[in-house]
Amino acid sequence: MAIERTFSIIKPDAVAKNVIGEIVSRFEKNGLRIVASKMLQLTQEQAEGFYAEHKERGFFKDLVSFMTSGPVVVQVLEGENAVLKNRELMGATNPKEAAAGTIRADFAVSIDENAVHGSDAPESAAREIAYFFSANELCDRIR
Ligand code: GDP
Ligand code: MG
Predict the structure, then answer these.
(1) pTM, full prediction
(2) Which CDD domains does this one have (predicted)?
């Protein structure tokens, strides 16, 4: 299995709960390395652009409002099968349906405020990484 990169957001609810470290620790304990990381406050334009695929959905306005409600941590994670690995660690979109021991089961309370984002495929990972990071912000962690 080749080394892969995926994009992660620790969302405003998890930042507010002060569980950034606990979430990052799960990535690290499960073979994912952080190769880029920054905290930022998303603008409305940034959040709308990031979630453009959902713009026709009824929850879009609430989603953008939530994602701009406080700081987030955007990260690039690297490791074997990183996209799927991260989705497994995150758990289902609705925390009520998320498997025990997943990030969303442990730190999220509702589908609107569900602690983390993770890319759903290698193609979306590449697009999402480029949305937030320039090439020279991605560090070489192989050694
Ligand atoms: P994800 O890939 O597991 O994050 O889920 P999706 O790509 O389907 O949806 C993106 C984000 O939109 C989710 O993480 C939720 O924050 C939000 N979302 C999805 N479905 C709903 C919904 O039915 N209601 C609300 N309020 N938010 C939703
Ligand atoms: Mg998604």
Answers:
(1) 0.97
(2) NDPk_I (cd04413)
